[in-house]
Amino acid sequence: MKAIVIGRFGGPEVLDYQTVPKPIPEQHHVVMKVKAFGLNHAEMHMRKGEWDEWNQISGLECVGIVEACPGGEISVGSKVAAVMGGMGRNRPGSYGEFVSVPASNVIQLESGLPWEHLAALPEVYCTAYTCLFTILGLQRGENLLIRGATSTIGQAALKLAVNAGAVVTATSRSKDRFDFLKSVGASNVRVESSALAKQFRPKGDEDHRFDKTLNLVGNRVLLESISLTRPGGRMLQAGWLGGLEPVSDFNPMIQMEPGVHFSLFHSKVLGSLDFPLSGVPLQEIVRKIEHGEFDAKPTYVFEYGDIHSAHRMLDSGKAGGKIVVKH
Prior knowledge:
Blueprint: E1 2-6, E2 15-19, E3 29-38, H1 41-48, E4 61-68, E5 79-83, E6 98-102, E7 106-108, H2 115-118, H3 122-135, E8 143-147, H4 152-163, E9 167-172, H5 178-184, E10 188-191, E11 210-215, H6 222-227, E12 229-237, H7 252-255, E13 261-264, H8 282-290, E14 300-303, H9 307-316, E15 323-326
Parallel strand pairs: 8-9, 8-11, 9-10, 11-12, 12-13, 14-15
Antiparallel strand pairs: 1-2, 3-4, 3-6, 3-15, 4-5, 5-7
Helix pairs in contact: 3-4
């Protein structure tokens, strides 16, 4: 089969098209014929040699058709989405024409959406749903703060939260993105900064804090995100848009606000025993998209033979949404 391979570390030009062995069917695994896949920033870092775990055939997610499933978990010929399960990390990923994925990381779908539209969903929507509803326990009418809302996961979280009836305040580094966030359903938008709390000064007895906070910016605003969450509320950190530098001289007894529940999440655990994909209603999300309840189209779609252009767009940071590659 043909596959896109990381021949050496560097820019988009290091991605080579090579002929490699097709995956051999295994028990409790699904061999898929890949129809399209979304790009993720982790794949850029893997390509550059900046990631601790990577495979020469990259790719963390895809959609396609079941070619083989020896364990019978999913019928041959089924339309499916796959995410994580070691793809692109400790096993070949979705940049090949075929990929083998643990059955626990595959979701069967029924949809008439184009492959490139379905490919924009697995990683960001499974992650966003897990963050909002599995971990934060978001409820209708609650006030939610999303920091980094114009990222792909931030956009998915905003759409899911608004659809579920939450009142969402969203942040972006650029005011140019405010109209977009409002059009998606954000009730309030603010400029993302490390002094965000100053933009929420209480008026009289009004409590300016949020029921739930989704921090996609990272350690740089971790403590402030906790302080913006009310006692009894929840703050989840699930991104590192602001870098991975640790919180300096961290002293929780002095710096953390009391009574706020603080959690972490990384999408690589999707499909694990602790975070099974059975807990993510991806089929229901697809139906809502089909019915026009919200838009989840990719912002850029590239042909399989143009992976260099796709990765140049990924590197630019200017996509403004999900990048998809289709066969």
